[in-house]
Amino acid sequence: ILEGKVALVTGSTSGIGLAIARTLAAEGARIMLNGFGDPAEIEKIRSELGALHDGADLSDPAQIENMVRRCTDELGAPDILVNNAGIQHVSPVESFPPEKWNAILAINLSAVFHTTRLSIPSMKAKQWGRIINTASAHSLVASPNKSAYVAAKHGVAGFTKSVALEAARDGVTANCISPGYVWTTLVENQIPDTMKARNLTREQVMNDVLLAAQPTKRFVTPEEVAALALFLCRDEAKSITGANLSMDGAGLPL
Ligand code: NAD
């Protein structure tokens, strides 16, 4: 259903972004991958999907401009823009390193502004576009010690609504997907340390720590997030715009 469409998916070398890239590619979209990682692994993903990869560091607006230009020159202007790259840092606000604050705001929020401002003119010209932002449950609620992440993700939610209003008559939708805990290597890697630090079993860490606020007691999978992203690309989803769609297993306010 996406034959002839070009999708730029940021942070697509692992986790949620990779699942979204795979799902969109399987429907025929031509993909521009972005993100860091082991060059051999990235090359494997790139060739598997017949995609291009651009290693732009999204904290740098000049590299974002290059990436969007390269996508436009080599694949076509993005019809589907998935802003998914994100980082986290956990620390009380009084000791939160200012450089971490700046990096989180740059990658998790400002990059979404830059890719959007650079991609939306061609979407409006074609009267078709899909902007899908991976926000987070933390775009709606807060946790302690995640001030930068929570601020950036609330910002993404607000930005998305504003863009949706601006593009409402142009066939361009803008939405957030807000997952709770998703099973990615990022989450998996926290388990052994937490087991040791709190003297808990693997099961206890999963249910009582990570899934404390996820009543289904089940991690969201990257493939579930990707399925929703694909639905948002369908023509039947054209009236879903400006929405912040939770996928958090009936998540409780934190
Ligand atoms: P991940 O670490 O597996 O993927 C992050 C991706 O972003 C990677 O491809 C990485 O290379 C890329 N990236 C990081 N810094 C970058 C930079 N400066 N420039 C370009 N690319 C960069 O994590 P994930 O869990 O798949 O997270 C993807 C998105 O989902 C993030 O925005 C995250 O905040 C959000 N999210 C994750 C969860 C979860 O539980 N895993 C929950 C809610 C929201």
UniProtKB/TrEMBL annotation:
Signal peptide: none annotated. Residues 5-189 form the Ketoreductase domain. Transmembrane segments: none annotated. The keyword Metal-binding does not apply. One of its GO terms (molecular function) is 3-hydroxybutyrate dehydrogenase activity. Keywords: Oxidoreductase. Its EC number is 1.1.1.30. It comes from the Bacteria. Belongs to the short-chain dehydrogenases/reductases (SDR) family. This is 3-hydroxybutyrate dehydrogenase. The lineage of its organism: Bacteria, Pseudomonadati, Pseudomonadota, Alphaproteobacteria, Sphingomonadales.
